[in-house]
UniProtKB/TrEMBL annotation, chains A, B:
Residues 286-439 form the Acyl-CoA dehydrogenase/oxidase C-terminal domain. It comes from the Bacteria. Gene3D superfamilies: Acyl-CoA dehydrogenase/oxidase, N-terminal domain, Butyryl-CoA Dehydrogenase, subunit A, domain 2, Butyryl-CoA Dehydrogenase, subunit A, domain 3. It comes from Candidatus Litorirhabdus singularis. The lineage of its organism: Bacteria, Pseudomonadati, Pseudomonadota, Gammaproteobacteria, Cellvibrionales. Keywords: FAD, Flavoprotein, Oxidoreductase. This is Acyl-CoA dehydrogenase.
Amino acid sequence: MENYRAPVEDMQFVIDELCEVGERLGGLQRFAELGVGPDLSGALLEESARLSAEVIAPLRRVGDTQPASCAERKVQISPGYAEALQQLAAGGWYGIAADPAHGGQGLPEVYGTAACEMWNSADMAFALAPILSIGAAMTIQAHGSEQQKSAYLEKMTSGEWAGSMCLTESGAGSDLGVMKTRAVPDGDHYRLFGQKIYITWGDHEAMDNIVHLVLAKLPDAPEGSRGISLFIVPKYLDDGSGGLGERNDIYPVSVEHKLGIHGSPTCVMALGDDAGAVGYLLGEPNQGLACMFTMMNEARLKMGVQGLGVSEGAYQQAVAYARERVQGGVPIIEHADVKRMLLTMRVQTEAMRALAYTEAVTMDLAHQSADPALQARVDLMIPVIKGWSTELGVEIASLGVQVHGGMGYVEETGAAQYLRDARIAPIYEGTNGIQAADLVGRKLGRDQGATMLALIEEMKATVTDCNNAELADIGTALASAVATLAATTTTLVEQLQENRHTAQAGAYDFMMQLGYVAGAWHLARSSVVASARCQQSERSIYPGKIASTRYYCEHILVRAASHAEVIFGGSAALQNYPTEWM
Amino acid sequence: MENYRAPVEDMQFVIDELCEVGERLGGLQRFAELGVGPDLSGALLEESARLSAEVIAPLRRVGDTQPASCAERKVQISPGYAEALQQLAAGGWYGIAADPAHGGQGLPEVYGTAACEMWNSADMAFALAPILSIGAAMTIQAHGSEQQKSAYLEKMTSGEWAGSMCLTESGAGSDLGVMKTRAVPDGDHYRLFGQKIYITWGDHEAMDNIVHLVLAKLPDAPEGSRGISLFIVPKYLDDGSGGLGERNDIYPVSVEHKLGIHGSPTCVMALGDDAGAVGYLLGEPNQGLACMFTMMNEARLKMGVQGLGVSEGAYQQAVAYARERVQGGVPIIEHADVKRMLLTMRVQTEAMRALAYTEAVTMDLAHQSADPALQARVDLMIPVIKGWSTELGVEIASLGVQVHGGMGYVEETGAAQYLRDARIAPIYEGTNGIQAADLVGRKLGRDQGATMLALIEEMKATVTDCNNAELADIGTALASAVATLAATTTTLVEQLQENRHTAQAGAYDFMMQLGYVAGAWHLARSSVVASARCQQSERSIYPGKIASTRYYCEHILVRAASHAEVIFGGSAALQNYPTEWM
């Protein structure tokens, strides 16, 4: 059943024709020598597609049925995963967007995003290993001393060493300020004592070493979130000459028995059961949360891409089944309701892809530019990409089960695994409730909606671009949705000033509304591009893009208005409901 | 984690105060001697609640972690299930609504519905055993000869013997007409040969015998669905004196490894590997599908009640966790977004309950009356109860996972199981796509919307009842939703005449729209009742019912309009999308 083939044509359409990476990024100093453009995109995507189809996708059912396990303070990962991770490393994929000064390829983030989508379609549990390693390396890149960078980055960028992020504790999840792990000064380093939970890929032997990034409290640290520091805690310490030395006092205690992503070891990690885990301060004391947050945008983009990737995987399996399965004398893909489900899967996946890749390009622009509007746009859209895409990931994987009928409920079919795997993404790396609160409370609140209104102006420009016979109906649907979005933005900005609780009560619905409208906008932009190409090309992707946009406007975008109604309603019933009656 | 307590107070509110079973059913001849009313309701609900909490709920995790298995043509069920099934039988629950002439208690269907909700909250996998047995007995009641009734019904009603329904074959699921199992005449009986799949509780040794109802084709039967007959195929044949004789040639081959409901053995059943399974024709030759359909309404109501039951179970666990779990110094139930999720779970569960119980009462009225409008109402609403409630069951169970954060994804917590279990209900007993097609194509089409418009008139009467200061906002919201429902009804009836494909393309959205509006209607009716009671009582259920209705109007009913938009849009984009581009 594992026939995943990366949708290279659609990916390349988004990267080269919709985002125009050659034109928009090729001229930037960082990318000037790299030949960013269609040829490079094509080569990278094809190579990543090959690796994903041949090496990673066959592991999905293996990891699910032979999960990672823990015994005697060691994690045993699923068969074949170590070799595949090494092939990923050998292909240079850990360092695709990393700094060339430390062994990276220095390519635009959007290529890493596309590769990440493929890994997640092929096997979400597997994909977490490179995602976490890359995230840890980026944090050291951003906050490490020169000595720390040279000690760790090259080995992490090459994929020789892995990375992990150790944040959560029992009792300290969304509220990290109450954590108990402590770091005691000990010469030029610290000794850490405590226990961390939900540590993704917290231990394994697929790579020679693991560079754990651990949040802990210094003695006499201020209370709460301002008293947390970040430490580098390598699994194996340096032997004094750059080689692997002593085993550090950080060990896996157990792995969780989870609904999905069985191939990803989710560890309880104990620090300091013996002499204390040796840790090196990363960044300034008590600035640990701020350090984590600098890489949060990238990490949350990748979580959104998990929703996208798992949707594509689920869609491909469902559409293949629907072409083969005959009921009533015709393949079920011809049944109106099955077609509805498949198109609902497909067009939302296209919309998520266009949104995620577009903002990955904005991220590259923001990194290379002094224009604060670019970073503000990224900051605004990241919680939407994370929250909206992971909500859709669950919906789409669930539709994939439904398309299969009874077979979808049988585990061997593999459709149910997409649902079980997808279900984690709305929870981790900041629950979707946290994303929504961040979107409304911080991103909308901090500039009274200015970044949001600038986005709306861009959406209106696309409405204007649709002003022709072919695209007029798309333009009309988008115009109406954008007008409503402008209205909810105004409503929320007012609510933030008058009663933050009211604004927060509508936050989830705003995140979803913005996601649906942004998806429509990017599909409408895609249709504008495709409409021009149609006249010069026979490729079905161009009329296909317009057909997808029409379906999206007809069946998906209509949801945005119901979310808006919740916001306009003001949530008095929610706020006034006495919790003791629940 | 298994602390399920049946919501007896809400159930009794619905049964006695909203549905007024004493007034509406107590006077009917069938129920005249039974004392239908609050005292009886209270006693029955308390006893069922006790059984569900003490006997069934503790099995939920057992069945999940120690699934049913099959070896040597026998199914071994999960530990404790057989004893619990026997307790259910001893309590008389198999026969609660069955004909007293064959050992039943002859009580109104709504009591069986409430008990069924409890079984499903406690353990969906377990609940399937009595549901299927009762369904099989009802089919024999409706179509059996007097001899068949006396041979089987008393033992099935007492729970001494179980029942099963053997319909699906590989390649013949939603399209039963192409099935291959054949029945060869052999004296006064038949010999059956074939293989059936997805047979729920197809084999076990919890009861002395299993009465399988099997669809098969007679020699020279017409093609397709008009050539299917129904047979009684007992696991053990009669020994000639009413005792258990020879083992019949129907055996389990394997049980499926499923996403959820692990405690329910889903069997592949082989008939006729040896001399042929002895079967007795039930009903007329070639009328097997029609026979099945007469009990389909009851079975589909129960499937909707599965969505309801699993929602209540998931809600109870989530709300208990949210009261205990502290983040940021307060229990998370006080966080706006967590409260939003919990209320979304709660009020939809209340709405599903009011809808399902109300139509269970209509079913009783229809059985005891010659008014065809009653049966037409039941026929109209059954696909909505099945489809809408099982879609919500998945949503609500998924929200239950989300409320738990990371813990929700860990299997031991038990929240994820509700999601895995709930996911089957939109698939079996007619997929929700089939329900939607039935609702629009048959139920709306056969009387050009007349039954639907009568329902809308009743909804409008409730709008009028809300015409007072306290309920005016509820009335306004309901009025608007009902007006839109009238408009989509008209649109679909027109589409059915002009282009059935267009109507079918909107069928799913109509099913969901009608479900949301019907839910609002029943909650509004509940609020009208509660509002009057508030003046005489301090019980929080009365203001609670109004608060739930307000939340429903604010956060849930808004979804109905987006489904309506799909119908008004006409689905041209769906229909015109070439499947080869997918």
